[in-house]
Amino acid sequence: MKTNLAEGLYPFHLTPEQEDRASRLHESSIIIDLLFQGPLSPQAIPAHISENIREACEPYRDEPMVYSGMPSKIIHDMAARGELPAFKEEWYRSGITAGNRQLDISDIEGLVTSMGEIQRQFDANDWLVKVLKAEDIRAAKSSNKKAGIVTAQETDGLGKNLALLDALYHFGLRVLQLTYNNQNYIASGCAEQANGGVSNFGARFIRRMNELGIIVDTSHCGKQTTLDACRLSTAPVIASHTGVEALFGHMRCKSDEELQAIAGTGGVIGVFAMPWFIYQDPNETTIEHVLDHIDYVARLVGVDHVGIGTDWPMSDVEWSLVYFKEHIAPRIGFAKGDGPSTETVKGLEKYSYFINFTRGLVARGYSDEDVQKIMGGNWLRVFEQVWG
């Protein structure tokens, strides 16, 4: 399906020749978003469906965690039943070859439920394949299919049971974040004032991840945890979705020392598209600000170590995102009012606008080879090294 250039173009003021070049690059490249909350976004979900979802969720309003999580589950259930054609349409219009499908490992119940939900996506869509090896992504590109990479952002539900880590690998888990904001058995998150780093058990955990071939992700980890992980891991370490602290001093952004440590392992830093985490005004954050972070990483550690992990917008409905910001975000380590909510990066309001990344990189003078690396080639290199 050809990318629709008539909709959602950010005004980079490219020449016709540059537009042609960007279109060619976007369609020919393997494109990977390693924190892919799509393919839908609130703007891609019809209003009547949003309202129907609200009515279905209303009986659970007194259970905040359940109420907040239900809309996304309903959306994915509808997509699996073929009731949301936009699920496939938006993914194909985006040009994204591979994006992650995210497990919930906050507890055992969430883990089992999310395993079923993820597997259902693969079973219900013959155009979506589960990635077990890097070659699966190349094969998906050549056969005009899409690839899903099973990942997770927390480890709390595993406790200290390394056998569960093995089981998840066999299910398809290929990227795992050590901790989400807070302290756990493995390490300290970025919201922990103690900045304690990786524990003794965490060192064993990382060693087992290396042995299995699960990539170590440090996105929500604290500074010392990130540095420890880079020292302990024998395989490339990544940050699937983060930003540059020197450009915007948010707890979710990485210091130069962390960025250099990740690159030193051969890893990649994925830049996110979170309005509250990359620029001071979430209502005026544009894709240019995201590109500023990409430029900074490329200059600091080299173009071979930067990629994309947008993390936004969510496959959710607007009223649910507002509720999440007000009632859930403070429970998981975010300061009150510190996002996320309904604001989106201008130029990435929908995943079908993803070509704006390629267009922006062309506008900033990157070569064809470097554009292809940033858009997915760097992630693929790490995948080939760790997964085979």
TrEMBL record:
MF-aspect GO terms: dipeptidase activity
Domain of life: Bacteria
SUPFAM superfamilies membership: Metallo-dependent hydrolases (SSF51556)
Listed EC numbers: 3.4.13.-
Keywords: Dipeptidase, Hydrolase, Protease
Descriptive protein name: Membrane dipeptidase
